[in-house]
Amino acid sequence: MRPLTSEDPRTVGPYRTLVRLGAGGMGVVYLARSAGGTLAAVKVIRAEHADDPGFRARFRREAGAAARITGPWVVPVLGADTEDREPWLATAFVPGPSLAEVVGAGGALPTATVRALGSRLAEALVAVHEAGLIHRDVKPGNVLLALDGPRLIDFGIARHEGATALTTTGAVIGTPGYLAPEQASAGPLGPPCDVFSLGCVLVYAATGRPPFGAGGGAGALFRTIHEEPDLTGVEPGLAPLISACLAKDPADRPAAGRVRDALTARAPGDLGDPGRGRDPREYPGRPGAPDPHEAPRTAPAPARWEMPAGLPALIAERSATALALPDPEPLPATLAPAGDGDTSGPGRRRLLTAGAAGAVLLAGGSTATWIALRGRGGGAGGGPTGSGKPPTYTIGLHADLGGPGRATGLAHLRGARLAVADHNARADQAFRLALRTEDDAGDPAAALRAAGRLAADPEVIAVVGPTGDVLREDVVARYAEERLATVVVAAGSTTADSATALHLCLIRPLDRMLPPGLIGYLTRTRPATRILLVEDATTPVLATETGVAFREATPAGATLIEHPLVRGNAGFAAVARKAVTSRADAVVLGGGDPARAARLATALADEGFTGSRVAAGPALGPAFLAGAGAAADGWVFAEAYADPTALPSAGTFTAAHRERFGAPPATWAAEAYDAVGLIARAAGATSASGEVRSGIPRRLVRTEHRGIVRTLAFDASTLRVRFENGIFLYRIEKGRPRFLGPFADV
Known about the structure:
The protein is of the alpha/beta class. The protein contains 23 helices and 24 strands. The protein has a seven-stranded mixed β-sheet with strand order 17-16-18-19-20-23-24, sandwiched between helices. Strands 1-2-3-4-6-5 form a six-stranded antiparallel β-sheet. The chain is globular, with a radius of gyration of 27 Å. The relative contact order is 0.08.
């Protein structure tokens, strides 16, 4: 990161530039921040290139295509303005290092990591190819490593030093040493050239060197065309697959989808299985074999991502650096970027978004959306517009209102009702909202029937819920069958596969994602030097995730001591004695059973332990408070919900809730209010580019909504909610939880 110069713009479209990330012959890449705080990498093309009509036309076409690419392993396009004097394109910012940096510093990666890396990069290429693009520059420098896997960057956009995907046909594009023979000879290009480059990247990851020698330049081009790759050091089980990827003839290479499947396969005889690999000639183009250029539509689960040593610490450092950058000084009013409700700026009208590439986004505000709705048919959730009245969109609420989770369901219902009423009271509303409720009474079979009724209603544009603690896979699948978005507020865990739940939008961090709040507390609020980590065997998932989080991000200068809490009743006293004898000043419970947490609290109190005691939210419940009694005081819990009565931003909501329902808002009411607001904002941004119901699932995770509890924003690559501002801390005082605030502010 380098400071901005006097010649750098302070605003690019809706983004405020912070620092330079890089520069080259084609343009400059900036780290920038949106009005809602989202960081983005914004590439601005130099005016001299944009003056070429052919270049601008290609940029316009490829920016639109790139914006359609979605998937967990690509860094997606967030927006672009192809008509600006200096066109720009914004992508999600990934703070991780490149594969080139990691291998250059630490050497070759383990085979398991190479396999996982390859399967995810191949999946990314499937998404690129299905969008009608070819990447043309797959190389270690264009692969960023995140905590959950790699991200492929820089597709469909101009490259530095004249090597651009926007050059004319016949030009040599890409990076020598990682491009295919047809690229090296300026021949016709297609998806197989990306597969060749992927093979080169895998050799580099597995051996620490490229397959056609070091040095690049003309020598690498010659060797790529005329010589065989050097696979010395590649694990034998991977060599056949990589050899197939590096075939000189594009027709002999497997498609990206087949590479993904081979790297995922575990059965003996599957391509890539250690010691049992097939001859690469048996793979593509043989009688009875699958079409090598046809990628399967359903991706299997990739191999577990084994992070290279030191990666979590490096990502944490870079993330902290980026987040710590100060906000730019306020711009003069004449230079300020248009806000969500501003529809006058030409750049705003030209903004391409990932959910509607090539379409015109008139504005985020409701007035402009209503202009776009006039003269158009109603569609799902709509209504006749010829009368001049705005349409009505129905939001479904799937809740337990008569079973064991009635309190949570009722909180959702009240929060949603207030949100609908507030939306409809707005003078400038482009559409009205209605609420349809289905009660499943906490019964799994009834939940599936309730989902079926809501999914079958063409007037319902999205659903809030279900409201149970566990989100069931069959319910998610039922909504997905009808392509109906579900916004889940309260569920702490799910049995659904996130890779297939394309219409699922979780707006809270799951229970296993809460430990960073505890780490923050023991780092900043109550710094600990000796931390006893207790993993409770009765709740293995939360115990494991808590353990992994603390091992990978132990507070600086602290010593981590581990002691298991075994099943049964005999382990609590031993843990408490360990806390005292090891001179720990903090105890972390990795577990979610409130009754067992109470027994641990009592044991610690009996041993006279007075240090910090922390746990994730599932361990806090009536059984903990009742069972621990006075020993509960001082414990701190990380939760995914806030107390709206203690939030200034939720003051109006709290007052309205008291007035209408005669009580303060219960847990999850405010979050349900924000969920409706998120759907309404997504509907407003979707209706100008097609049927509302079909457009909302993709738009939800591209939307940034400033709610009364927190800003709802999503990671652009994983499409998961950003949890940084969604973890809240509570401390038990006099037998009751007291809200401390977001963990980063405590």
